[in-house]
Amino acid sequence: MAMNALAATSRNFRRAARLLGLDSKLEKSLLIPFREIKVECTIPMDDGTLASFVGFRVQHDNARGPMKGGIRYHPEVDPDEVNALAQLMTWKTAVAAVPYGGAKGGIGCSPGELSRSELERLTRVFTQKIHDLIGTHTDVPAPDMGTNAQTMAWMLDEYSKFHGHSPAVVTGKPIDLGGSLGRDAATGRGVMYATEALLAEYGKSISGSTFVIQGFGNVGSWAAQLIHERGGKIIALGDVTGSIRNKAGIDIPALMKHRNDGGALKDFHSAEVMDSAELLVHDCDVLVPCALGGVLNKDNAPDVKAKFIIEAANHPTDPEADEILAKKGVIVLPDIYANSGGVIVSYFEWVQVIASMFFTTSLHICSLVLIRHHRLIVQNIQGFMWDEEKVNNELEKYMSSAFRHIKAMCKSLDCDLRMGAFTLGVNRVARATLLRGWEA
Ligand SMILES: NC(=O)C1=CN([C@@H]2O[C@H](COP(=O)(O)OP(=O)(O)OC[C@H]3O[C@@H](n4cnc5c(N)ncnc54)[C@H](OP(=O)(O)O)[C@@H]3O)[C@@H](O)[C@H]2O)C=CC1
Ligand SMILES: O=C(O)CCC(=O)C(=O)O
Questions:
Q1: Is ipTM strictly over 0.90?
Q2: Is the pLDDT of residue 101 over 90?
């Protein structure tokens, strides 16, 4: 049985605040969210009936910059979960050293049961309800579980009806609308870089290790492909429909083809079906949860056999499980570092869009005078969009710098990687908060 997500996240925050010796009033102020939004979203369904959904956006903190975080569509979305995820974003952006605060949103729904047009209507109604509380310099949504680049395109379009063309109001959007190359793969790629960095600390590498992955959506499938490319052997994998295993290693490119052709994971020909309850306790070197929160808890933690856990999902491990795993000597790489690749590349996307918009505006003014040079300058706008290699190289630099800073915190405070990451993030937010002050 998993702990309440908010209780678990706040417990980790409080431990970090004590380790840092934070003033108790500052601690309280950092914990309370800046704003919690709850909206009712009623849409006509394709069959003509009405359906009502509840949408949330929790804006946790903006001391370091505009609030930032994904939008989740999932039946288990609830206010505490969104609150916890928003808080995690605040510490995550600080650990990654990108100039953002933290937010998260979601709608309680089953996206797989809604048609494309129902999803579009729901996204548009949700955006109408929150449009005056988000914005390029206030709160910038992105995809999370159950949402994708198309969802961001609808949000961008709906928001722009109220505020004029605003491509930087969301990230993780399609390339044709100003999205960044590499954003789709970024979280999984960051997971791969983080795994490489952690294993190297222990004299190991991806190529000599066995992996078990839970979740085969955006994060899980990219992590699997990139780990496979680097010679990692993925011996078991699962999603909501079931789990499969193959001792010799699952052929990930063949599985991707099977999945892209519409096949279910459990029907993949060159692996055997296994009990999903066994997935997280399957024997392996590295376990990578890439789905829901709270999946590692006091009930299954004693049976975990992995030596390393890479938290690609948000808050997959309860604090109670953390204690059990620590006693067993399992090394856990925390979510606020391990899955930060997504928000890091979101930042690259946001900067590129803002830079190109600024350039276009200046160009309009200049072109009145320099009309002859207009075409030449227009070509240069392309220079603001980074190629994929540059995105990936920059991502690797941010990931390895964050890892070095986390290790330094672990050393100076004599704590584990989770507390190293939390103290790093909380300290940066606390410093920004104190510098800005509270004068009304
Ligand atoms: N997308 C991003 O950029 C980021 C995502 N994350 C986190 O990573 C995790 C995954 O997100 P993402 O990949 O985007 O989401 P997706 O919706 O793309 O994929 C989710 C995956 O989890 C599977 N899943 C859902 N429920 C269960 C379950 N009960 N047991 C096993 N598998 C399950 C889904 O299966 P099925 O497809 O069959 O439904 C799917 O394979 C989340 O915790 C998210 O917050 C963190 C940072 C950034
Ligand atoms: O890319 C982003 O802005 C946010 C990604 C996200 O929701 C997360 O890191 O959990």
A1: yes
A2: yes
